[in-house]
From TrEMBL:
<feature type="domain" description="Phosphotyrosine protein phosphatase I">
    <location>
        <begin position="5"/>
        <end position="145"/>
    </location>
</feature>
<keyword id="KW-0059">Arsenical resistance</keyword>
<dbReference type="Pfam" id="PF01451">
    <property type="entry name" value="LMWPc"/>
</dbReference>
<protein>
    <submittedName>
        <fullName>Protein-tyrosine-phosphatase</fullName>
    </submittedName>
</protein>
<dbReference type="InterPro" id="IPR023485">
    <property type="entry name" value="Ptyr_pPase"/>
</dbReference>
<dbReference type="InterPro" id="IPR036196">
    <property type="entry name" value="Ptyr_pPase_sf"/>
</dbReference>
Length: 165
């Protein structure tokens, strides 16, 4: 087996959308992909949103090891080399990203913030479930690609095309 492709999902606080994407790709990736997530400005003592954890667990996706962290962790010399960096919120997409060693492919997959949902616990949970399903649809396409489609240029083009789905 070749080494997995490392994918970093970015959002502002790294508590909802990027956490959902990280856990889902690690679940679907079958060893071909290794997902990570980070935020441009997580709040002090930021934790993954409890509703994100709940919806992942209800979907049968492991939440072990999920934590909110700053994207600075991935700029360190000992950080894993990223092959693809995907922003999943519009705020992070508009920010100046740090330099990523190796110049990974990049794409933007915007999703509404499920943390903004109002209403009962079940209504808020439904917003997270809808976001999880939207993320999962794109990731299922990504993991179904033949190995030749995930070289650097093809990966970037494919990831950007998936933003249109």
């Amino acid at each position: 087996m070749t080494k997995p492709l490392n994918v970093l999902f970015l959002c502002t606080h790294n508590s909802a959308r990027s956490i959902l994407a990280e856990a889902t790709l690690n679940h679907l990736g079958q060893g071909r992909f290794k997902a990570f997530s980070a935020g441009s400005s997580p709040r002090e003592n930021q934790q993954p949103n409890p509703l994100a954890i709940e919806v992942l667990e209800r979907a049968g996706i492991s939440t072990n090891g999920l934590r909110s962290k700053t994207w600075d962790e991935f700029g360190n010399p000992d950080a894993p080399h990223m092959d693809l960096v995907i922003t999943v919120c519009d705020n992070a997409a508009g920010e100046v990203c740090p330099y990523w060693p190796g110049q990974p492919a990049t794409a933007h997959w915007g999703y509404p913030d499920p943390s903004d949902a109002k209403g009962t616990h079940e209504q808020k949970l439904e917003a997270f479930r809808e976001t999880l399903l939207a993320i999962r649809r794109r990731l299922e396409f990504l993991v179904s690609l033949p190995p030749a489609s995930v070289d650097k240029l093809a990966l970037q083009n494919t990831a950007r095309d998936l933003a249109k789905r």
